[in-house]
Design brief:
Length: about 350
């Protein structure tokens, strides 16, 4: 059975990137973000490799329960929180940490009869993102409601999220920090605010906790830099193989819609990768791959299972040759994301389950 396409997941690179987080934020605890199947890398193996982290973070209750069912004991934060009495009770049963960002969620908690208190609740402060969060005065009222309620929660903290931390020198970042700083100083509660971009570029936002996501996987949160330029190593190398070649003549059209036409005699290759594997259709006539160390362009539309490439730059290419889709210094996922008009988060998260993952140390 063919192993292609597959993703080489370098766990040593992952651990290197965790050390880089410590380099950037040496005085903060680390909450490693492993939501969305660890950004497409495979959450169980990634969590095992990040066992030295102080806590994990996921988006939804189901993700947290999967980690608990696999025996992970670390604190696990659920960013979206929970929204029913039964889910509050389940979260308490499994010692999960919740983010509270809606009054209705609090109402459910105050109604729920918990068998034991939650270990921690993060109160989401609205500082300027205008997505999830509550106003400062509302947060103060909730803090008062939690006072003395040892039956509900052991500890609380403050959380917020940057809207523009990937934009250096954007004044909105400082405005968000000021809103958080005011509340942090008057309450004395621990704070978690810095994502990957803020960990690197906004040290004043580190506080007691940071929560790296994309940088753990070796990609840059900034449009103008690669992960390598930030001292990071790519964790995922997406790989496939050449499954067919054809000799084209001038005027031959390639792929659905005939959107690419050969202007001269040339050799074309077909690679076993497509949007069914997570390779973006927006890379039609825009992407490139590496065969035998040579960069070759994607031609024609990306199909569900295949892409076509121009082999002029690699005339020695043969059937079964390995093809690098992304994950090297020469072909970073950040470059492909730019060509696809998206961000590296999306490309990584969209790698589908039918792509095998192979986990390597080193």
């Amino acid at each position: 059975m063919s192993r292609y396409p597959f993703a080489r997941i370098n766990l040593t690179a992952l651990q290197h990137n965790l050390q880089q987080v410590r380099y950037y934020a040496p005085h903060s605890k680390i909450m490693s973000v492993i939501k969305a199947d660890a950004y497409g890398h495979g959450v169980i193996e990634i969590a095992k490799a990040l066992e030295q982290t102080d806590a994990f973070a996921v988006a939804r209750l189901k993700e947290a329960l999967i980690l608990r069912q696999h025996g992970f004991k670390q604190p696990i934060t659920i960013f979206e929180g929970v929204s029913t009495i039964e889910e509050w009770q389940l979260a308490a049963e499994y010692d999960l940490t919740l983010v509270l960002h809606q009054q209705q969620h609090l109402d459910y908690l105050l109604t729920a009869k918990l068998n034991k208190p939650l270990p921690f609740i993060w109160l989401m402060l609205e500082t300027g993102m205008h997505r999830l969060g509550l106003a400062e005065q509302h947060i103060r009222q909730i803090i008062d409601q939690f006072t003395g309620r040892t039956d509900l929660v052991d500890e609380i903290g403050l959380m917020s999220h940057f809207a523009n931390s990937d934009l250096l020198n954007d004044t909105r970042n400082q405005q968000q920090i000021m809103v958080m700083q005011r509340l942090a100083e008057t309450t004395g509660l621990p704070v978690c605010m810095a994502n990957s971009a803020a960990i690197i570029s906004l040290p004043q936002s580190h506080y007691q906790w940071v929560r790296p996501g994309l940088m753990l996987y070796g990609a840059s949160p900034f449009a103008y830099k690669t992960g390598a330029q930030l001292g990071l190593k790519p964790v995922m190398q997406l790989v496939s193989k050449l499954i067919a070649t054809q000799q084209l003549k001038a005027g031959d059209e390639v792929g659905y819609g005939g959107q690419w036409t050969a202007d001269q005699s040339m050799r074309m290759g077909v690679v076993s990768i497509g949007y069914g594997d997570g390779y973006s259709r927006h890379l039609s006539n825009a992407g490139k791959v590496i065969i035998r160390g040579k960069e070759v362009p994607v031609i024609g539309r990306v199909s569900m299972d295949t892409v076509c490439v121009n082999l002029d730059a690699c005339p020695q290419a043969q059937l079964e040759d390995e093809v690098v889709i992304w994950g090297t210094d020469a072909l970073a996922v950040e470059w492909l994301a730019e060509k696809a008009g998206t961000i590296p988060y999306e490309l990584l998260c969209c790698v589908t389950p039918r792509v095998n993952r192979e986990y390597l140390h080193g």
